[in-house]
Design a protein that fits this description.
The structure holds two protein chains of two kinds. By secondary structure, chain A is an alpha+beta fold. Chain A has helices at residues 87-107, 110-139, and strands at 5-11, 15-21, 23-28, 31-35, 42-46, 49-55, 58-64, 67-71, 75-80. In chain A, a hairpin with a 2-residue loop joins β6 (49-55) and β7. Chain B has a five-stranded mixed beta sheet with strand order 3-2-1-4-5, sandwiched between helices. In chain B, 59% of the residues lie in helices and 14% in strands. The mean pLDDT of chain B is 87. Chain B has helices spanning 4-41, 43-58, 92-109, 121-127, 146-160, 210-285, and strands spanning 76-82, 113-119, 132-136, 166-174, 180-188, 205-207. Classes of the chains: A alpha+beta, B alpha/beta. At the A-B interface, β1, β5, β8 and α1 of A face α2, α4, β3, α5 and β6 of B. β5 of chain A pairs parallel with β6 of chain B.
Chain lengths: 140, 286
């Protein structure tokens, strides 16, 4: 019976794999890493690539978009990213988020604009009705 | 005779409303189930993250990340507020905003400025006058991490560059399908009390350098907290809507019953009047 270790592959959105494996090869950011049971504690970042592991049933391969791998002698956890990430890309999304907020502050979204406009119209109409009532009364 | 037709059309329109609220209730119920599944699915990641981060935060490591260190003076704080995109979910958003306003008012009293990043259009329109620095709206029922990282990064960068000295998360906690409670938690600096006790004193082998790994890990940790908040908020939104729509449907039913009674009374009164007219008409002829 070959030695096994527990492997958990989880992403923020779902759990991708959980089970006993005999061996795994992960795409570390410094190069591929082969991990066998009783590996010493290691923590590393992963780049996008293929994650291969050997279970009792054979070899399985899984695509990871990057992430972090934590290795302990009998447990390996892979915290997978859900999408390919890079510093530049993250920077861009951050700018977009800021810009959206600014646009929303300046431009006001149509919902609120309508509400204000309708409110103003309503007030004007109310004032008109009041005037008509008052004039009507004095005429009578 | 008065109002028979009016009452009938009133009953008709309330019946239509009831159909809509009933449909919304059922849609919310099924969406809530899926949202809860998603909430559970995201839990292992966050739990695992917390384990690793607590090791980093408590272990005597060579590199201390800025998110772990407490800053002495607080001049400006950041808030991430998670709300829903749509209304018709009872007091869910209102309660949350009330809680956030209280907290913000406390900071303002101490002359501390506040920066706000929002998730969901309800929070955007509410916090607009406070100045929102980043937003993410229209995430839908299945939010992707991709749509959130930008907004989170704005706040993380602000912390790292020293523009804010604390970061809080304002979110709804899913207690059960009947109860949701708003809560404010401090995300950065990471509070050691939240961390699990650890007894070991070894350190990891880092690849590449420890600071690079820890930087990424900390960012991912905060992201996972926010992601969980967003997913949890969807479950809250759906269950709050389900409850709100259920009571709307019940109220519509009550109103229909009352109107039916009124309608029958009016109908009966009309018939009685007709009979008495006929009788008195016949009496006059005799």
């Amino acid at each position: 019976m070959a030695m096994t270790m527990q492997l958990d592959v989880v992403s923020a959105e779902e759990s991708l794999f959980s089970g006993a494996v005999q061996e795994l090869i992960a795409p570390g950011s410094m190069g591929d890493l082969g991990i066998m049971p009783r590996h010493s504690q290691l923590i590393t970042t992963l780049k996008a690539g293929e994650l291969k592991y050997k279970t009792g049933d054979g070899e399985v391969s899984l695509f990871v978009a990057g992430g972090i791998m934590e290795v302990q002698p009998s447990i390996v956890t892979i915290l997978a990213d859900t999408a390919v990430r890079s510093e530049d890309l993250d920077e861009q999304t951050a700018k977009d988020a800021q810009k959206r907020a600014e646009d929303a502050l300046e431009g006001k979204d149509p919902e609120d604009l309508d509400y204000e406009a309708i409110r103003a119209e309503l007030d004007a109409a109310k004032a008109q009705i009041e005037m008509i009532h008052r004039i009507g009364k004095t005429l009578r | 005779m008065a109002g028979l037709k009016e009452i009938r059309s009133q009953i008709g329109s309330i019946q239509n409303t009831k159909k809509i609220t009933k449909a919304m209730e059922m849609v919310a119920a099924s969406k809530m189930r899926r949202a809860r599944e998603r909430m559970d699915a995201s839990r292992p990641y966050a739990d695992k993250m917390r384990q690793v981060v607590s090791h980093m935060a408590l272990g005597k490591l060579e590199y201390q990340h800025t998110f772990v260190k407490e800053r002495e003076t607080v001049k400006r704080v950041g808030y991430i507020v998670i709300s829903s995109d749509r209304g018709l979910c009872g007091g869910l958003n209102t309660n949350l905003f009330k809680k956030a306003f209280q907290d913000i008012a406390d900071w303002k009293e101490q002359d501390v400025e506040v920066d706000i990043a929002v998730f969901g259009s309800k929070a955007l329109s509410t916090f607009r006058r406070f100045g929102v620095v980043a937003e993410a709206t229209g995430l839908g029922d299945k939010p992707g991490m991709n749509d959130m990282v930008g907004t989170i990064k704005v706040m993380l960068d602000a912390y790292e560059e020293g523009r804010i000295d604390r970061l809080f998360l304002v979110e709804n906690e899913f207690v059960n399908s009947m109860t949701q409670s708003p809560r404010v938690t401090q995300m950065i600096p990471i509070i050691a009390a939240d961390m699990e006790e650890i007894q070991y004193h070894w350190d990891y082998i880092y690849e590449p350098e420890s600071n690079e790994v820890i930087d990424i890990l900390m960012d991912r940790y905060i992201e996972s907290l926010v992601y969980q908040g967003v997913v949890e908020n969807i479950a809250c939104e759906m269950s709050a809507r389900m409850v709100a729509m259920k009571s709307a449907t019940d109220n519509a039913g009550d109103m229909i019953d009352k109107l039916k009674l009124k309608y029958n009374k009016a109908r009966q009164a009309a018939i009685t009047q007709e009979i008495s007219e006929i009788v008195s008409g016949a009496a006059a002829v005799e």
